[in-house]
Amino acid sequence: MKVSTSKDNNLKTASLFIERAKLSEAEIIVLPEMFNTPYTKSHMINYAEEGQGKAYKFLKENSKGIILIGGSIPEKDGENIYNTTFAFENGIEIGKYRKINLFDVDYDKICFQESGFITPGENTTVIKTSLGKIGLAICFDLRFPDLFQKMEEENPFLYIVPAAFNNVSGPAHYKLLARSRGLDTQSFIALCSPASDLNAEYCPYGHSLITDPWGNVLSEMDETEGIVLQNIDKEYVNQIRCELPIKKKLIK
Amino acid sequence: MKVSTSKDNNLKTASLFIERAKLSEAEIIVLPEMFNTPYTKSHMINYAEEGQGKAYKFLKENSKGIILIGGSIPEKDGENIYNTTFAFENGIEIGKYRKINLFDVDYDKICFQESGFITPGENTTVIKTSLGKIGLAICFDLRFPDLFQKMEEENPFLYIVPAAFNNVSGPAHYKLLARSRGLDTQSFIALCSPASDLNAEYCPYGHSLITDPWGNVLSEMDETEGIVLQNIDKEYVNQIRCELPIKKKLIK
Protein backbone atom coordinates (compact mmCIF):
# COMPACT_ATOMS: atom_id res chain seq x y z
CA MET A 1 0.00 0.00 0.00
CA LYS A 2 0.95 3.59 -0.54
CA VAL A 3 1.17 5.48 2.75
CA SER A 4 -0.41 8.95 2.81
CA THR A 5 -0.02 11.81 5.26
CA SER A 6 -3.46 11.03 6.75
CA LYS A 7 -3.37 8.45 9.51
CA ASP A 8 -7.06 7.66 9.11
CA ASN A 9 -6.72 7.19 5.37
CA ASN A 10 -3.83 4.83 5.95
CA LEU A 11 -5.92 2.62 8.24
CA LYS A 12 -8.69 2.67 5.63
CA THR A 13 -6.27 1.66 2.85
CA ALA A 14 -4.85 -1.09 5.03
CA SER A 15 -8.31 -2.45 5.78
CA LEU A 16 -9.14 -2.60 2.05
CA PHE A 17 -5.97 -4.60 1.35
CA ILE A 18 -6.66 -6.87 4.32
CA GLU A 19 -10.15 -7.53 2.98
CA ARG A 20 -8.78 -8.31 -0.47
CA ALA A 21 -6.20 -10.69 0.99
CA LYS A 22 -8.88 -12.40 3.08
CA LEU A 23 -10.97 -12.92 -0.07
CA SER A 24 -7.93 -14.72 -1.52
CA GLU A 25 -7.97 -16.97 1.57
CA ALA A 26 -4.73 -15.61 2.99
CA GLU A 27 -4.06 -17.09 6.43
CA ILE A 28 -1.19 -14.78 7.39
CA ILE A 29 -1.45 -11.14 6.33
CA VAL A 30 1.47 -8.72 6.61
CA LEU A 31 1.39 -4.92 6.44
CA PRO A 32 4.37 -2.66 5.65
CA GLU A 33 6.74 -0.92 8.07
CA MET A 34 5.14 2.31 9.38
CA PHE A 35 1.94 1.62 7.46
CA ASN A 36 -0.02 4.30 9.34
CA THR A 37 2.45 7.17 8.97
CA PRO A 38 4.85 8.64 6.43
CA TYR A 39 8.43 7.72 7.24
CA THR A 40 9.45 11.17 8.54
CA LYS A 41 10.52 12.25 11.98
CA SER A 42 7.66 14.70 12.52
CA HIS A 43 4.94 12.32 11.34
CA MET A 44 6.26 9.42 13.37
CA ILE A 45 6.38 11.55 16.50
CA ASN A 46 2.93 13.06 15.92
CA TYR A 47 1.27 9.78 14.96
CA ALA A 48 2.71 7.77 17.84
CA GLU A 49 0.09 6.20 20.11
CA GLU A 50 0.32 5.17 23.71
CA GLY A 51 -0.86 1.69 24.75
CA GLN A 52 -3.87 0.39 22.89
CA GLY A 53 -4.51 3.32 20.57
CA LYS A 54 -6.43 3.60 17.33
CA ALA A 55 -3.97 1.68 15.17
CA TYR A 56 -3.64 -1.07 17.77
CA LYS A 57 -7.41 -1.48 17.97
CA PHE A 58 -7.66 -1.39 14.20
CA LEU A 59 -5.19 -4.26 13.90
CA LYS A 60 -6.90 -6.27 16.64
CA GLU A 61 -10.27 -5.85 14.93
CA ASN A 62 -8.96 -6.74 11.49
CA SER A 63 -7.24 -9.91 12.66
CA LYS A 64 -10.48 -11.84 13.03
CA GLY A 65 -10.08 -15.23 11.39
CA ILE A 66 -6.45 -14.64 10.39
CA ILE A 67 -2.94 -14.02 11.65
CA LEU A 68 -2.16 -10.34 11.17
CA ILE A 69 1.37 -8.97 11.36
CA GLY A 70 0.66 -5.29 11.67
CA GLY A 71 3.63 -3.93 9.74
CA SER A 72 4.92 -1.45 12.23
CA ILE A 73 3.61 1.71 13.91
CA PRO A 74 5.18 4.37 16.11
CA GLU A 75 4.41 3.19 19.65
CA LYS A 76 4.63 5.62 22.57
CA ASP A 77 5.71 4.32 25.96
CA GLY A 78 6.19 7.11 28.47
CA GLU A 79 8.88 9.38 27.08
CA ASN A 80 9.95 6.88 24.44
CA ILE A 81 8.75 6.13 20.93
CA TYR A 82 9.43 2.69 19.42
CA ASN A 83 9.11 1.33 15.89
CA THR A 84 6.87 -1.59 16.81
CA THR A 85 5.31 -4.58 15.11
CA PHE A 86 2.15 -5.86 16.80
CA ALA A 87 1.03 -9.37 15.93
CA PHE A 88 -2.51 -10.70 16.34
CA GLU A 89 -4.31 -13.94 15.72
CA ASN A 90 -8.07 -13.97 15.56
CA GLY A 91 -8.50 -10.83 17.65
CA ILE A 92 -5.88 -11.67 20.25
CA GLU A 93 -2.45 -10.04 20.55
CA ILE A 94 0.17 -12.80 20.29
CA GLY A 95 3.32 -10.72 20.51
CA LYS A 96 5.06 -7.51 19.66
CA TYR A 97 8.53 -6.59 18.48
CA ARG A 98 10.30 -3.27 18.92
CA LYS A 99 12.90 -2.59 16.21
CA ILE A 100 16.36 -3.08 17.68
CA ASN A 101 18.63 -1.84 14.89
CA LEU A 102 17.60 1.67 13.94
CA PHE A 103 18.05 3.20 10.51
CA ASP A 104 20.95 5.66 10.76
CA VAL A 105 22.62 6.30 7.42
CA ASP A 106 24.37 9.06 5.57
CA TYR A 107 24.96 8.16 1.94
CA ASP A 108 24.34 9.20 -1.59
CA LYS A 109 21.41 11.65 -1.25
CA ILE A 110 19.86 9.96 1.79
CA CYS A 111 20.60 10.99 5.35
CA PHE A 112 18.35 9.68 8.11
CA GLN A 113 18.82 9.28 11.86
CA GLU A 114 15.99 7.15 13.20
CA SER A 115 17.81 6.88 16.52
CA GLY A 116 17.35 10.64 16.95
CA PHE A 117 13.72 10.11 17.96
CA ILE A 118 13.09 6.35 18.13
CA THR A 119 14.26 4.25 21.07
CA PRO A 120 15.69 0.83 20.16
CA GLY A 121 13.95 -2.31 21.42
CA GLU A 122 15.83 -4.74 23.58
CA ASN A 123 14.40 -8.18 22.88
CA THR A 124 14.00 -10.43 19.88
CA THR A 125 10.50 -11.80 19.29
CA VAL A 126 9.42 -15.16 17.92
CA ILE A 127 5.64 -15.53 18.01
CA LYS A 128 3.72 -18.77 18.33
CA THR A 129 0.83 -19.00 15.90
CA SER A 130 -1.56 -21.78 14.99
CA LEU A 131 0.50 -22.21 11.81
CA GLY A 132 3.89 -22.39 13.52
CA LYS A 133 6.56 -20.12 14.92
CA ILE A 134 7.38 -16.85 13.17
CA GLY A 135 10.36 -14.58 13.87
CA LEU A 136 9.82 -10.83 13.68
CA ALA A 137 12.31 -8.20 12.57
CA ILE A 138 12.05 -4.74 11.00
CA CYS A 139 13.92 -3.33 7.99
CA PHE A 140 17.49 -2.36 9.08
CA ASP A 141 17.52 -5.46 11.33
CA LEU A 142 18.09 -7.45 8.11
CA ARG A 143 21.71 -6.27 8.17
CA PHE A 144 22.42 -8.09 11.43
CA PRO A 145 22.81 -11.86 11.06
CA ASP A 146 23.32 -12.20 14.81
CA LEU A 147 19.74 -11.02 15.41
CA PHE A 148 18.49 -13.88 13.26
CA GLN A 149 20.84 -16.32 14.98
CA LYS A 150 19.27 -15.35 18.29
CA MET A 151 15.77 -15.93 16.91
CA GLU A 152 16.91 -19.27 15.46
CA GLU A 153 17.18 -20.65 18.99
CA GLU A 154 13.37 -20.81 18.94
CA ASN A 155 13.42 -22.29 15.44
CA PRO A 156 10.81 -20.39 13.40
CA PHE A 157 10.00 -21.62 9.88
CA LEU A 158 9.35 -18.07 8.66
CA TYR A 159 10.65 -14.58 9.40
CA ILE A 160 8.38 -11.64 8.69
CA VAL A 161 10.14 -8.32 8.16
CA PRO A 162 8.19 -5.12 7.48
CA ALA A 163 10.82 -3.07 5.65
CA ALA A 164 10.71 0.39 4.10
CA PHE A 165 13.97 0.47 2.14
CA ASN A 166 14.64 3.43 -0.15
CA ASN A 167 15.77 3.91 -3.73
CA VAL A 168 19.46 3.67 -2.84
CA SER A 169 19.54 0.73 -0.44
CA GLY A 170 16.55 -0.96 -2.09
CA PRO A 171 18.03 -1.79 -5.52
CA ALA A 172 21.40 -2.55 -3.88
CA HIS A 173 20.44 -4.67 -0.87
CA TYR A 174 16.74 -5.40 -0.39
CA LYS A 175 16.52 -8.66 -2.31
CA LEU A 176 20.10 -9.64 -1.46
CA LEU A 177 19.43 -9.37 2.28
CA ALA A 178 16.13 -11.26 2.06
CA ARG A 179 17.76 -14.09 0.11
CA SER A 180 20.84 -14.25 2.30
CA ARG A 181 18.93 -14.24 5.62
CA GLY A 182 16.71 -16.95 4.13
CA LEU A 183 19.70 -19.02 3.03
CA ASP A 184 21.57 -18.50 6.32
CA THR A 185 18.58 -19.57 8.41
CA GLN A 186 17.16 -22.04 5.86
CA SER A 187 13.75 -20.48 6.39
CA PHE A 188 11.15 -18.47 4.52
CA ILE A 189 11.51 -14.68 4.60
CA ALA A 190 8.67 -12.24 3.88
CA LEU A 191 9.47 -8.55 3.37
CA CYS A 192 6.64 -6.02 3.20
CA SER A 193 7.31 -2.45 2.08
CA PRO A 194 5.05 0.55 1.51
CA ALA A 195 4.58 1.25 -2.19
CA SER A 196 6.81 3.82 -3.83
CA ASP A 197 5.70 7.45 -3.59
CA LEU A 198 7.94 9.86 -5.44
CA ASN A 199 6.14 12.81 -3.84
CA ALA A 200 6.87 11.65 -0.31
CA GLU A 201 9.70 13.10 1.75
CA TYR A 202 11.03 9.55 2.16
CA CYS A 203 10.20 7.43 -0.87
CA PRO A 204 9.96 3.71 -0.02
CA TYR A 205 11.40 1.14 -2.41
CA GLY A 206 8.34 -1.11 -2.56
CA HIS A 207 9.05 -4.61 -3.96
CA SER A 208 7.51 -6.70 -1.18
CA LEU A 209 8.65 -10.29 -1.64
CA ILE A 210 8.89 -13.80 -0.25
CA THR A 211 12.02 -15.98 -0.41
CA ASP A 212 12.44 -19.66 0.42
CA PRO A 213 14.98 -21.71 2.44
CA TRP A 214 17.11 -22.31 -0.69
CA GLY A 215 17.46 -18.53 -1.17
CA ASN A 216 15.08 -18.28 -4.13
CA VAL A 217 12.55 -15.50 -4.55
CA LEU A 218 9.07 -17.06 -4.68
CA SER A 219 6.99 -13.96 -5.48
CA GLU A 220 7.62 -10.26 -5.60
CA MET A 221 5.84 -7.00 -6.23
CA ASP A 222 7.13 -4.09 -8.24
CA GLU A 223 7.15 -0.62 -6.65
CA THR A 224 3.36 -0.13 -6.93
CA GLU A 225 0.50 -1.09 -4.61
CA GLY A 226 -0.63 -4.69 -4.54
CA ILE A 227 -0.63 -8.00 -2.77
CA VAL A 228 2.01 -10.73 -2.82
CA LEU A 229 0.04 -13.94 -2.35
CA GLN A 230 2.16 -17.03 -1.79
CA ASN A 231 1.59 -20.56 -0.55
CA ILE A 232 4.31 -21.74 1.79
CA ASP A 233 5.22 -25.40 2.18
CA LYS A 234 6.59 -25.69 5.71
CA GLU A 235 7.97 -29.15 4.97
CA TYR A 236 10.34 -27.62 2.42
CA VAL A 237 12.23 -26.10 5.37
CA ASN A 238 12.99 -29.59 6.67
CA GLN A 239 13.80 -30.91 3.19
CA ILE A 240 16.48 -28.25 2.67
CA ARG A 241 17.83 -28.71 6.19
CA CYS A 242 18.28 -32.44 5.46
CA GLU A 243 19.76 -32.05 1.98
CA LEU A 244 22.14 -29.26 2.93
CA PRO A 245 22.81 -29.68 6.63
CA ILE A 246 24.25 -26.57 8.26
CA LYS A 247 23.47 -27.41 11.88
CA LYS A 248 19.81 -26.37 11.88
CA LYS A 249 17.20 -28.21 13.91
CA LEU A 250 14.20 -29.60 12.05
CA ILE A 251 10.89 -27.83 12.58
CA LYS A 252 7.94 -29.76 13.99
CA MET B 1 43.00 -23.23 -13.10
CA LYS B 2 41.70 -26.62 -14.11
CA VAL B 3 42.80 -29.29 -11.67
CA SER B 4 44.04 -32.55 -13.18
CA THR B 5 44.58 -35.97 -11.64
CA SER B 6 48.36 -35.42 -11.63
CA LYS B 7 49.61 -33.64 -8.52
CA ASP B 8 52.82 -32.57 -10.27
CA ASN B 9 50.94 -31.17 -13.23
CA ASN B 10 48.71 -29.19 -10.86
CA LEU B 11 51.73 -27.56 -9.22
CA LYS B 12 53.07 -26.75 -12.67
CA THR B 13 49.79 -25.19 -13.78
CA ALA B 14 49.59 -23.20 -10.55
CA SER B 15 53.12 -21.89 -11.05
CA LEU B 16 52.28 -20.71 -14.58
CA PHE B 17 49.25 -18.80 -13.30
CA ILE B 18 51.27 -17.34 -10.44
CA GLU B 19 53.90 -16.15 -12.94
CA ARG B 20 51.22 -14.59 -15.13
CA ALA B 21 49.66 -12.82 -12.14
CA LYS B 22 53.07 -11.55 -11.04
CA LEU B 23 53.64 -10.11 -14.51
CA SER B 24 50.38 -8.17 -13.99
CA GLU B 25 51.89 -6.82 -10.77
CA ALA B 26 49.48 -8.69 -8.50
CA GLU B 27 50.42 -8.19 -4.84
CA ILE B 28 48.11 -10.84 -3.37
CA ILE B 29 47.67 -14.05 -5.35
CA VAL B 30 45.02 -16.63 -4.48
CA LEU B 31 44.79 -20.25 -5.66
CA PRO B 32 41.62 -22.40 -5.66
CA GLU B 33 40.42 -24.84 -3.00
CA MET B 34 42.22 -28.20 -3.39
CA PHE B 35 44.34 -26.85 -6.24
CA ASN B 36 46.74 -29.80 -6.16
CA THR B 37 44.21 -32.61 -6.16
CA PRO B 38 40.88 -33.52 -7.71
CA TYR B 39 38.02 -33.06 -5.25
CA THR B 40 37.47 -36.78 -4.58
CA LYS B 41 37.91 -38.79 -1.42
CA SER B 42 40.57 -41.11 -2.82
CA HIS B 43 42.67 -38.35 -4.38
CA MET B 44 42.52 -36.16 -1.32
CA ILE B 45 43.62 -39.05 0.89
CA ASN B 46 46.39 -40.14 -1.48
CA TYR B 47 47.68 -36.64 -2.17
CA ALA B 48 47.71 -35.52 1.47
CA GLU B 49 51.15 -34.42 2.70
CA GLU B 50 52.55 -34.38 6.19
CA GLY B 51 54.24 -31.24 7.47
CA GLN B 52 56.26 -29.32 4.94
CA GLY B 53 55.67 -31.50 1.88
CA LYS B 54 56.00 -30.83 -1.82
CA ALA B 55 52.98 -28.55 -2.13
CA TYR B 56 53.95 -26.60 0.97
CA LYS B 57 57.48 -26.02 -0.36
CA PHE B 58 56.06 -25.12 -3.76
CA LEU B 59 53.88 -22.40 -2.20
CA LYS B 60 56.71 -21.09 -0.06
CA GLU B 61 59.02 -20.85 -3.08
CA ASN B 62 56.40 -19.17 -5.26
CA SER B 63 55.53 -16.53 -2.67
CA LYS B 64 58.75 -14.57 -3.24
CA GLY B 65 57.85 -10.89 -3.61
CA ILE B 66 54.13 -11.43 -3.07
CA ILE B 67 51.47 -12.57 -0.63
CA LEU B 68 50.34 -16.05 -1.68
CA ILE B 69 47.16 -17.62 -0.34
CA GLY B 70 47.72 -21.21 -1.34
CA GLY B 71 44.12 -22.18 -2.10
CA SER B 72 43.88 -25.32 -0.04
CA ILE B 73 45.57 -28.70 0.02
CA PRO B 74 44.95 -31.93 1.91
CA GLU B 75 47.22 -31.67 4.95
CA LYS B 76 48.14 -34.79 6.93
CA ASP B 77 48.69 -34.49 10.66
CA GLY B 78 49.19 -37.87 12.31
CA GLU B 79 46.02 -39.86 11.66
CA ASN B 80 44.07 -36.82 10.50
CA ILE B 81 43.70 -35.10 7.16
CA TYR B 82 42.65 -31.43 7.03
CA ASN B 83 41.50 -29.19 4.20
CA THR B 84 44.09 -26.48 4.79
CA THR B 85 44.94 -23.06 3.44
CA PHE B 86 48.60 -22.08 3.88
CA ALA B 87 49.45 -18.39 3.57
CA PHE B 88 52.91 -17.01 2.75
CA GLU B 89 54.42 -13.60 2.27
CA ASN B 90 57.76 -13.31 0.53
CA GLY B 91 58.87 -16.86 1.33
CA ILE B 92 57.65 -16.89 4.93
CA GLU B 93 54.58 -18.73 6.23
CA ILE B 94 52.28 -16.17 7.85
CA GLY B 95 49.41 -18.42 8.84
CA LYS B 96 47.29 -21.40 8.03
CA TYR B 97 43.61 -22.19 8.26
CA ARG B 98 41.99 -25.60 8.53
CA LYS B 99 38.45 -25.72 7.12
CA ILE B 100 35.99 -25.85 10.00
CA ASN B 101 32.67 -26.45 8.24
CA LEU B 102 32.99 -29.53 6.06
CA PHE B 103 31.02 -30.14 2.89
CA ASP B 104 28.37 -32.74 3.71
CA VAL B 105 25.40 -32.59 1.37
CA ASP B 106 22.86 -34.88 -0.22
CA TYR B 107 20.86 -33.09 -2.87
CA ASP B 108 19.82 -33.15 -6.47
CA LYS B 109 22.46 -35.42 -8.07
CA ILE B 110 25.26 -34.48 -5.65
CA CYS B 111 26.06 -36.44 -2.52
CA PHE B 112 29.34 -35.77 -0.75
CA GLN B 113 30.54 -36.40 2.81
CA GLU B 114 33.80 -34.53 3.30
CA SER B 115 33.59 -35.24 7.03
CA GLY B 116 33.97 -38.95 6.22
CA PHE B 117 37.71 -38.48 5.67
CA ILE B 118 38.57 -34.84 6.53
CA THR B 119 38.90 -33.66 10.14
CA PRO B 120 37.42 -30.22 10.84
CA GLY B 121 39.70 -27.40 11.98
CA GLU B 122 39.10 -25.76 15.32
CA ASN B 123 40.29 -22.16 15.00
CA THR B 124 39.50 -19.19 12.82
CA THR B 125 42.48 -17.49 11.16
CA VAL B 126 43.07 -13.84 10.39
CA ILE B 127 46.53 -13.27 8.94
CA LYS B 128 48.60 -10.13 9.24
CA THR B 129 50.19 -9.10 5.96
CA SER B 130 52.12 -6.04 4.86
CA LEU B 131 48.91 -4.92 3.10
CA GLY B 132 46.59 -5.40 6.08
CA LYS B 133 44.66 -8.11 7.85
CA ILE B 134 42.99 -10.86 5.84
CA GLY B 135 40.47 -13.39 7.12
CA LEU B 136 40.64 -16.94 5.75
CA ALA B 137 37.76 -19.34 5.18
CA ILE B 138 37.11 -22.24 2.81
CA CYS B 139 34.05 -22.93 0.65
CA PHE B 140 31.25 -24.37 2.85
CA ASP B 141 32.35 -21.97 5.62
CA LEU B 142 30.59 -19.25 3.61
CA ARG B 143 27.29 -20.62 4.90
CA PHE B 144 28.14 -19.75 8.50
CA PRO B 145 27.85 -16.04 9.33
CA ASP B 146 29.03 -16.72 12.88
CA LEU B 147 32.44 -17.81 11.55
CA PHE B 148 32.83 -14.41 9.90
CA GLN B 149 31.58 -12.65 13.03
CA LYS B 150 34.36 -14.35 14.97
CA MET B 151 36.97 -13.22 12.43
CA GLU B 152 35.51 -9.70 12.53
CA GLU B 153 36.85 -9.30 16.06
CA GLU B 154 40.28 -8.90 14.43
CA ASN B 155 38.82 -6.56 11.81
CA PRO B 156 40.21 -7.71 8.44
CA PHE B 157 39.49 -5.57 5.35
CA LEU B 158 39.34 -8.63 3.10
CA TYR B 159 38.28 -12.26 3.39
CA ILE B 160 39.83 -14.79 1.03
CA VAL B 161 37.84 -17.94 0.47
CA PRO B 162 39.11 -20.73 -1.79
CA ALA B 163 35.84 -22.40 -2.78
CA ALA B 164 35.07 -25.32 -5.08
CA PHE B 165 31.29 -25.09 -5.39
CA ASN B 166 29.52 -27.38 -7.87
CA ASN B 167 26.96 -26.98 -10.61
CA VAL B 168 24.02 -27.20 -8.20
CA SER B 169 25.15 -24.98 -5.32
CA GLY B 170 27.23 -22.76 -7.59
CA PRO B 171 24.49 -21.17 -9.69
CA ALA B 172 22.19 -21.05 -6.65
CA HIS B 173 24.46 -19.73 -3.90
CA TYR B 174 28.04 -18.93 -4.87
CA LYS B 175 27.62 -15.26 -5.79
CA LEU B 176 24.81 -14.77 -3.26
CA LEU B 177 27.00 -15.96 -0.39
CA ALA B 178 30.00 -13.88 -1.49
CA ARG B 179 27.87 -10.74 -1.75
CA SER B 180 26.04 -11.36 1.52
CA ARG B 181 29.17 -12.10 3.57
CA GLY B 182 30.70 -8.97 2.03
CA LEU B 183 27.66 -6.87 2.90
CA ASP B 184 27.34 -8.33 6.41
CA THR B 185 31.00 -7.67 7.22
CA GLN B 186 31.34 -4.54 5.04
CA SER B 187 34.54 -5.98 3.64
CA PHE B 188 35.97 -7.28 0.38
CA ILE B 189 35.46 -10.98 -0.37
CA ALA B 190 37.55 -12.97 -2.85
CA LEU B 191 36.41 -16.44 -3.91
CA CYS B 192 38.72 -18.66 -5.91
CA SER B 193 37.44 -21.86 -7.53
CA PRO B 194 39.06 -24.47 -9.77
CA ALA B 195 37.86 -24.14 -13.36
CA SER B 196 34.99 -26.34 -14.49
CA ASP B 197 35.89 -29.82 -15.72
CA LEU B 198 32.93 -31.80 -17.00
CA ASN B 199 35.06 -34.96 -17.15
CA ALA B 200 35.99 -34.79 -13.48
CA GLU B 201 34.24 -36.91 -10.87
CA TYR B 202 33.42 -33.66 -9.01
CA CYS B 203 32.98 -30.78 -11.44
CA PRO B 204 33.79 -27.41 -9.83
CA TYR B 205 31.62 -24.40 -10.62
CA GLY B 206 34.43 -22.00 -11.46
CA HIS B 207 33.42 -18.31 -11.45
CA SER B 208 36.12 -16.91 -9.17
CA LEU B 209 35.10 -13.42 -8.14
CA ILE B 210 35.69 -10.40 -5.93
CA THR B 211 32.94 -8.44 -4.17
CA ASP B 212 33.12 -5.14 -2.31
CA PRO B 213 31.82 -3.82 1.06
CA TRP B 214 28.60 -2.57 -0.59
CA GLY B 215 27.86 -6.11 -1.83
CA ASN B 216 28.72 -5.44 -5.47
CA VAL B 217 30.65 -7.87 -7.65
CA LEU B 218 33.83 -6.12 -8.84
CA SER B 219 35.16 -8.78 -11.22
CA GLU B 220 34.34 -12.35 -12.01
CA MET B 221 35.48 -15.22 -14.19
CA ASP B 222 33.28 -17.58 -16.13
CA GLU B 223 33.75 -21.33 -15.65
CA THR B 224 37.01 -21.52 -17.62
CA GLU B 225 40.64 -21.02 -16.61
CA GLY B 226 41.88 -17.49 -16.09
CA ILE B 227 42.86 -14.77 -13.69
CA VAL B 228 40.62 -12.27 -11.89
CA LEU B 229 42.79 -9.18 -11.49
CA GLN B 230 41.29 -6.49 -9.31
CA ASN B 231 42.55 -3.36 -7.56
CA ILE B 232 41.17 -3.00 -4.05
CA ASP B 233 40.75 0.37 -2.36
CA LYS B 234 41.03 -0.36 1.35
CA GLU B 235 39.67 3.09 2.21
CA TYR B 236 36.36 2.14 0.60
CA VAL B 237 35.81 -0.19 3.58
CA ASN B 238 35.88 2.78 5.93
CA GLN B 239 33.76 4.91 3.60
CA ILE B 240 30.96 2.31 3.60
CA ARG B 241 31.27 1.76 7.36
CA CYS B 242 30.78 5.52 7.88
CA GLU B 243 27.93 5.96 5.40
CA LEU B 244 26.02 2.88 6.51
CA PRO B 245 27.04 2.28 10.13
CA ILE B 246 26.25 -1.23 11.34
CA LYS B 247 28.55 -1.31 14.36
CA LYS B 248 31.81 -2.08 12.53
CA LYS B 249 35.13 -0.68 13.65
CA LEU B 250 37.11 1.31 11.11
CA ILE B 251 40.23 -0.34 9.69
CA LYS B 252 43.60 1.32 10.19
What is this structure's SSE topology?
The structure is a homodimer of 252-residue chains.
Chain A: H1 7-23, E1 28-30, H2 41-47, E2 49-50, H3 54-62, E3 67-69, E4 73-77, E5 80-89, E6 92-98, E7 104-107, E8 110-113, E9 125-129, E10 132-136, H4 145-152, E11 158-162, H5 169-185, E12 188-192, E13 209-211, E14 217-220, H6 234-243
Parallel strand pairs in A: 1-3, 2-4, 10-11, 11-12
Antiparallel strand pairs in A: 3-5, 4-5, 5-6, 7-8, 9-10, 12-13, 13-14
Brief descriptors of the model:
homodimer; 252 residues; alpha/beta; Nitrilase/N-carbamoyl-D-aminoacid amidohydrolase; 6-stranded mixed β-sheet; 6 helices; globular
Structural description of this entry:
Chain A is of the alpha/beta class. Chain A has helices spanning 7-23, 41-47, 54-62, 145-152, 169-185, 234-243, and strands at 28-30, 49-50, 67-69, 73-77, 80-89, 92-98, 104-107, 110-113, 125-129, 132-136, 158-162, 188-192, 209-211, 217-220. In chain A, the strands form 3 sheets. In chain A, strands 1, 2, 3, 4, 5 and 6 form a 6-stranded mixed beta sheet that branches. A 6-stranded mixed beta sheet of chain A has the order 9-10-11-12-13-14, covered by helices on one side.
Count of helices of chain A? 6
From the structure provided, what is the oligomeric state, counting identical versus distinct chains?
homodimer
Roughly what fraction of the amino acids of chain A lie in strands? 25-35%
In helices, the fraction of residues of chain A equals: 25-40%
Largest sheet of chain A: 6 strands, mixed
Q: Please state the average pLDDT score of chain A.
A: 97
